[in-house]
Amino acid sequence: MCFAMKRLGSTVLTLFVIWHTCDSGNVLVYPIEGSHWINMKILIEALHSKGHSITVLQSDKSWYIKEDPLFYETITLISSFRSGTHDVVYEMVVNMFEDKCLMKKLNESQFDLVLADPGLGAGAILAYYLQIPLVFNVRWTTTGEGHFDIAPSPLSYIPLTGTGFTDKMTFKQRLKNILHYFLTFYQKYVLIKPKYQAICDKYLQPKVDFFELQQAADIWLMRADFVFEFPRPTMPNVVYMGGFQCKPSNPLPQDLEVFVQSSGDHGVIIMSLGASVTQFPPDVAADLSDEIAAAFAELPQKVIWRHTGDKPATLGNNTLLVNWLPQNDLLGHPKVKAFVAHGGTNGVQEALYHGVPVVGLPLFFDQYDNLLRLQQRGAAKILSFETLDKTVFLQALQEVLHDPFYRMNMQRLSRLHKDQPMKPLDQAIFWIEFVMRHKGAAHLRTESYKMPWYAYHSLDVIGFLAFMAFTAVFLTVISIRYLFCRFCLKRKMKYE
Amino acid sequence: MCFAMKRLGSTVLTLFVIWHTCDSGNVLVYPIEGSHWINMKILIEALHSKGHSITVLQSDKSWYIKEDPLFYETITLISSFRSGTHDVVYEMVVNMFEDKCLMKKLNESQFDLVLADPGLGAGAILAYYLQIPLVFNVRWTTTGEGHFDIAPSPLSYIPLTGTGFTDKMTFKQRLKNILHYFLTFYQKYVLIKPKYQAICDKYLQPKVDFFELQQAADIWLMRADFVFEFPRPTMPNVVYMGGFQCKPSNPLPQDLEVFVQSSGDHGVIIMSLGASVTQFPPDVAADLSDEIAAAFAELPQKVIWRHTGDKPATLGNNTLLVNWLPQNDLLGHPKVKAFVAHGGTNGVQEALYHGVPVVGLPLFFDQYDNLLRLQQRGAAKILSFETLDKTVFLQALQEVLHDPFYRMNMQRLSRLHKDQPMKPLDQAIFWIEFVMRHKGAAHLRTESYKMPWYAYHSLDVIGFLAFMAFTAVFLTVISIRYLFCRFCLKRKMKYE
């Protein structure tokens, strides 16, 4: 407790400032590279602005996560390759546990919390080892979409990522969805678990199950919300912070503003295929770029296209090629009428936040599924690279530009998304601080994951009831048969 | 839009006040009597203070719901008996639909929302008839605890109300829990559904299922939270407002304050068995009251006991009998050390809010289960009326008074409960207004309840897969047998 006295005229002003250790927490972060790091950094900066100390674990081969002593301290782990895969994480974590000096430092640092992206498994292992609470910044865990690890997920209306299904499925789709789910078991138990389990077996207490460490996370800060995601069962310790990275737009650089204003009433289309894709795969690049450029050239709109490959031969005067674009500031510009996007989560969320309808060109992973969630709500139109040509692309652009349906729907989603009791980022920070204040959030987390799977699904009870029913039927049949036989025998004896 | 200008020195201060129609909504309320009405009235008063118009539907035999034109308009429905049971509601709703004049009024009133307590089924029917959004103020629906109607509820760790089990059950308890669940089917489909379904069949469109009307509610304002309730799966449209009725205490009336202060360092115990029970059942009243009074008389604490029966013969000087007590103000008083309570939700929530440990004397319905949730967290001790005598009661009181474990745990629950991003009542009002602003909250509600039950549980897919597996095994066996026979036959023929 800090105690200060200040004489103010004849009045003694007494200030009591109560200082809690948890008001300024000590957070250990285990992030993932690429777009995941962009998200994590937003949380780190917000935590830093609230006075918390942050330490980030990174690979010595890291290509995205840079040292930034203004916001966080860095602990570097040794790896043979650039981090990202489970093999590299295995190597990094083993190196970490074998480095006695580093482990001493971690043990002595008195961290209050591990904040981890559970797409890789190291964070959960670290939190258990240090015996401190765990908060996930999550959309994917090591084994798939985050909800599947903690919330009941009826496969009859919850489509698996990659299936391209919605929450309304035909019999055939439901069948495929269930088969797809069983296929993920192979990934989960054969490809993913053994490496992490080996670490648990060697460095943690005996009989610690790696998946249980994940399920023990106190709070799951989910990078989604139900304006974007199909409604589905959830758990009390899941906090939805979808769009937490979105913010009002800033003014554009002057040259870009001049270009945008030159579009007049027609407005502007922007096109970007995300942070890691600035051009198409080499085998289709030239053809596709030509088709797209030719379609753009026929429009009265201006176009800003993030494109680093060869200049398309069919490029029109209305199209500006750029290496990089201020995506959020453009999406928030009133002249921007449509967004041609690959469907990465960040871009989709930004489009939704600013209410700009999307023409989707999904490439891989969850991109089709992300775009599908907008298309289902009438806010996007998805095209396929396989069938893409000038005509198809032009038609889709004109539809999204001129049919008010798309813009109205996207604006409606934007209004719903922004109409929350609390901003998603503030909500995320509240719950991280909550976990530090109360040293966990056990009251929000079921311990059902500790049950054997057959007990969780009541299979032992169902088996017992089935056995009892079978026994009852069996005994009844036997008794009836016995009585019947005796009766027949008696009659037979009587009449003989 | 309202536009105001005010000259302030040389500055023109311009105020823009944007007025939305939905800022002042028109709410139709279908409440339930008794303690449910106490809760609903808090919501109504809060909505009224935000400028919304409220109309309350009540029975002409209502014994709790009074006209109160300051806060709401009243529409009176005719019933033969005091409202409360499903039979009376059936009669009231039929009378309502048959009253052409009243129906014209309801249709013309342009309500924005039905706010209903789903313990009775009329609210859901009205919302469907008027084709307006529906918000539930809920803990129980017509068929049981609210969650069971909309969220997946694995019976392996979610105990049914009335079982007295926790979220950690033995095999035998899980078996009983499942059997108990199947028993509720009788109540649900034989006792409850037919009457409401008859109304749907007669006055709504054909093929409207009553239970689907309930499941279609936009928002479920749940009178619970996970400081009180065991953690369990939930849905995006469930908003937890447990303890929304709780508030800081006001000063006590002077005579009571004097009595309380006279307790010195020993403090005060309060005892109340709820709004509807002020004395024990007649057959045990005298004996029990004597035992309780005798136990109180042995304590150095002062006691305030809400008791209207005969004065117990063993009453001590330290015990004050009252007809009514300001429960919230007493629970918030620093001198109050323990609360002897029957375990009604309101009382339990107030004790939790103020952090006062409880000695529980449950009478019926959910009271044991409510108290069990506190006992599990070490914040209450439950006694049974069957085994209650002076010794048992005195021992329990002394344990709760002197073992710091109880108070510490209850204070911890209180801190957790109060540490929310938003006050529960504000949260409830936000979501009611949200539903009015957006004319529903369809994006938060799954439509899985529209699926046939076998499809929801994927039983058709599982059946198909089992059939395919069976067919595959059968064909394999047939083929092997055929080949084997041919082979045997050939060998036989060869050697013969």
TrEMBL record, chains A, B:
Q: What class of enzyme is it?
A: transferase
One GO cellular component, as annotated: membrane
Show which residues constitute the signal peptide.
Answer: 1-24
Query: EC?
Result: 2.4.1.17
Topological category with respect to the lipid bilayer: Single-pass membrane protein
Tell where it localizes: Membrane
Q: What is its main location?
A: membrane
TM region positions? 461-484
Q: Which UniProt keywords apply?
A: Glycosyltransferase, Membrane, Signal, Transferase, Transmembrane, Transmembrane helix
- What is the superkingdom listed in this entry's lineage? Eukaryota
Q: Which reaction does it catalyse?
A: glucuronate acceptor + UDP-alpha-D-glucuronate = acceptor beta-D-glucuronoside + UDP + H(+)
As one GO molecular function, the record gives: glucuronosyltransferase activity
Tell me the InterPro entries matching this sequence: UDP-glycosyltransferase, UDP_glucos_trans, UDP_glycos_trans_CS
The similarity comment for this entry is: Belongs to the UDP-glycosyltransferase family.
Q: What protein name is recorded for this chain?
A: UDP-glucuronosyltransferase
Organism of origin: Denticeps clupeoides
Classification lineage = Eukaryota, Metazoa, Chordata, Craniata, Vertebrata
